[in-house]
Every structure is written in structure tokens, then in C-alpha cells.
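Bug #77: duplicate submission created two jobs. Keeping one. Sequence:
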Amino acid sequence: MNYITFILNIVIVKELSVSILFIEYSDQPEGTLNQHEPKTAMRILLVIFFSLLTAGAAAPDLNVIFIVKPDPINAYERILMAVFHVECNGNLKAYNQLEEAKGPLQIRPIRLLDYNLRTGNKYLLDDCYDFNISKKIFMYYALKTGYPNYEVIAKNWNGSGKMTSDYWEKIKLEL
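Kept job's structure:
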């Protein structure tokens, strides 16, 4: 007569069920030994262990779809940063006394007046030291020109005359 003792433990870890099975198998009554007993018991143990292991190996039931929103591409970022580097060389508090231009994008009083009239904003020249406000003003004019006219955007930002060609050459080096 065969004597089999099963000890079954089920452990739950973070919604994953793991079964651990301990088997004692014997052809002989308790207290007597058989030379094939360890091999047979090990085979049965391995078969049952791997059967239980693969039975619980199904993918978790997830009813979720992950959609990652990509960051938007700003086509004007390159020209904005090029103008920023040429105009103030990274100095957010830049001031050009000759032109009375202020801020990182060197906004002149006439440009700010035009912007305020067109948009209904009431920015002061000192507000142009704020990079976000300067960027907003620059983007207003850049969007009016349109992508990918970087040369026209840069020349319009700078003004008019021979100096705009020199200005464009400096911008190209930053692009």
C-alpha cells in the first residue's frame, strides 16, 4: 500500500497566487525504507510543482490601455533660442540704453506699444525682463510670419536696413 502525505500552502503576494506543495511519498509503511523512494518522490514533486507553477503563470487580467501623450513640438523653439542668444547672450536682465530695449529678447518701446495695441494687453517695458512675457511677445510676431521662415522672422524682429542682414548671419550661427 502506498502512503502519500500532501501539505499544500497557498501564499498570496500582491494579487499573485503562488502555490507551494510538499509531498511525502512512500511505498512502505512509516519507518521502513525503499531504495527507489527518494527518486520517485522527487519526480512526483517536480511534476506537481511545475504543473502548479505553470497553472498560475497566466498574464494578469488588466483591463487598462496606456496611452502616452507625446510632448508637442514647438517649431519656433530654435529661432526663439537663437534670438535669445544673439540679443542678450543669456542675460535675462539685459538693457540696451541706446535703443531702450529690455529683457532677454531686447524688446523696444515701439514694439511693446504695437503689441499692446494689437492684443489689448497692458504690459510695461519692465515686464519684458520676464522671459515668459518676452517669449509671448516674440511668438506673437513669429506666428504672424509663419514657419519655416526663420530668416524673415529674425529680420522682422530686428527691424530694417543693412543691419538686419548682419543680424540674420548671427542668428544662423545660433541655429
